[in-house]
Design brief:
By secondary structure, the chain is mostly helical. It has a single domain (3-186), classed as Orthogonal Bundle (Arp2/3 complex 21 kDa subunit ARPC3), CATH 1.10.1760. It contains 8 helices and 2 strands. The chain has helices at 3-24, 41-51, 53-75, 81-94, 102-110, 116-140, 152-177, 179-186, and strands at residues 29-30, 32-36. It has a two-stranded antiparallel ribbon. The radius of gyration is 17 Å and the shape is globular.
Length: 189
């Protein structure tokens, strides 16, 4: 990668990370207090598909660290170093795995074919792994906060599975409504 191109990708990643973090400050509960939309997943998905796996992973990692510092410590979402590591840097970096589909999605768009299915497929990979990290942390570290009559793993599955489904629905709706915009944002000109 040329020096200028590397700087462009780095700058773009920093801007996307900042935008994703700003979007995390928008209220995002979905009725049930623990099921949440994460609006920042949308620009992160576009960035990972636009720039690929490595930039996607790095942007996700930076987003996770930024969220840990700005929201995790102050909101009581940080219980101990291992839980914080799993739920912030690891889970957020997993979003960058969407970049595994960068080449395929770009090729489909350039061929003039419908990219919705491919974008959803590769986005679901990043989303599933992100919420799997939260599920594990929920079962291990947050289990004490589950209702007394509920298994902590079931509770974690309901909360984190619900958040995964809510975010996939959000992505699907936005992708249907803004499909052409998504395609233009993914292709590097």
């Amino acid at each position: 990668m040329a020096k200028n191109q590397h700087l462009i990708v780095l700058t773009e990643g920093a801007l996307i990370t900042a935008a994703a973090q700003v979007l995390n400050f928008v209220p995002h509960s979905a009725g049930i207090s623990s099921i949440q939309f994460q609006y920042g997943l949308i620009p992160m998905a576009i960035f990972a598909l636009r720039r690929g796996l490595k930039p996607g992973l790095m942007a996700g990692l930076c987003w996770g660290l930024l969220d840990l510092i700005l929201r995790g410590f102050s909101s009581g979402s940080f219980l101990n170093p291992l839980q914080g590591f799993i739920e912030y840097p690891v889970a957020f970096a997993a979003v960058g795995l969407i970049g595994l589909g960068s080449i395929k999605v770009k090729q489909v768009i350039k061929d003039g074919k419908n990219s919705i299915g491919w974008i959803l497929l590769f986005s679901s990979i990043g989303f599933v792994i992100k919420y799997f990290c939260h599920f594990v942390a929920g079962g291990v570290f947050w289990g004490a906060f589950a209702p007394k009559t509920m298994n902590p793993w079931i509770y974690s599955l309901v909360i984190n599975g619900g958040s995964f489904i809510a975010n996939m629905i959000m992505l699907f709706v936005l992708l249907i409504v803004l499909h052409k915009l998504f395609d233009r944002l993914i292709i590097v000109r």
